[in-house]
Amino acid sequence: MQENAIQSWGRLGIPVIILGGEDGTSEIAEEIGAVHILTVSRSENGTPLLNSLFALAKQNSQTPYLAYINADIILSDSFVRCFEAFLKERHTITEANVLVTARRRNIPLSTSLFGNKQHWHNILLDTDHEYGSWDNSNANDLFLFNRELFNDIKPFSIGRMLWDNWLIWKAVNEKAAIVDCSFETAIYHPVHGYSQGWMEITQGGDAVKNRELSDGNFMDLQVATTHILKAGKIIKANSSQLEGLDVYCQRDPDKEFKASLKYLISTMQDREIAEKIDACRTLLWRYSMYFPTNDMEVILPELAQVAFCQAKDQMDAGQFLNSATIIQSLIMQHLVEKVRSEKVRGRDVVIWGSGEWGKKLQTCLAQHLIYVNAFIDSNKAMIGQKIENIPILHSTELMAYPKDKPYIIIASMYAGEIKKTLEDAGYMWGDDFWA
Length: 435
Prior knowledge:
There is one protein chain. By secondary structure, this protein is α/β, with parallel strands linked by helices. The chain folds into three domains: 250 residues, Spore Coat Polysaccharide Biosynthesis Protein SpsA, Chain A; 75 residues, no CATH class; 91 residues, 3-Layer(aba) Sandwich (Rossmann fold). Helices cover 42% and strands 14% of the residues. It contains 16 helices and 17 strands. The strands form four sheets. It has a six-stranded mixed beta sheet, sandwiched between helices. The chain has a six-stranded mixed beta sheet with strand order 14-15-13-12-16-17, sandwiched between helices. Helix 11 crosses helix 13, helix 12 crosses helix 14 and helix 13 crosses helix 14. It is globular and about 70 Å long.
């Protein structure tokens, strides 16, 4: 996936800087004629730090504009045309600083684009036509900005939550114009899972540190956008134009499902089961389905293969929701069995988190005839309210729970912090709570 991305950049005739010393970076940099910087500052866990990446790029370039892009994102010819149009229209923006970006489209692409008889760009467009779907406006992988912007960046870990939405907040805070170019170009994001596991990406030490660094400051691109590039012209964005952009970039869950299943089936022999299951999580979220964040090693690969094939049969028959339900049942199996056994023992079951994730979990458990006794939340505004007639209790009430320790399922983006709170209170992972 990274080779496809970097090769696509090299063919656009723009200067490229590759940062980091991971396997293969020096070879691909030499192949496309990129500058290669080996040494990058990293977190305690070895993850590259955002402030180091941006500082090194500025130190090793002279161009008035720079563009950070994640290493799996494929660019098409339209990216260069879009930037050229922006440069011609830059004078219409009065703000001194500017951040240009575009929303991404998810596609399945785990094989090489290059070395085929068909031109790589045609393969990309054909794949997009059959499988491509816009992602949420809070998933940002491209930051094109003038050199004077982003001089004071915090040491966020790349790929570990919130750094991208903090950068948008930072640009807005520095009074930059935010230009969404999605009408003119798209960036292509191949569907994939995470070799480190979803729990590490979203709840590990680097993710927790990123949340601390953000200090609650992060923004969605749709909220931040001040200008739109459309038909070669920069337009000052109003509510009507932003609504039109949102309609244009509307997601297609069915195509996303097709893309994820194609990835899962085509990489069946090449990826670990945890990584394959990770690729299903975002998909289930968009079908309003719950997914656990715990490690997936408990799922047998042969069961996963059967489930993926059954899901494909349902998808081919046009039954996308049935197909998603098969995938959800696969990754929920262990959790459902565990919670059911705790219920049989007479323990109450509570969900920590009363937001959308918690509601989806409650719905999923009810479908398995497992009924939740309470929600737990740290947000005082939620206390005393009910969801499906289930009370919401404050987290402090958990320690004075009227019965024996309840079994807790964490359904919150702050699962890492909640896990530590529970362990400090004497709760044991697996025996007393799950995520």
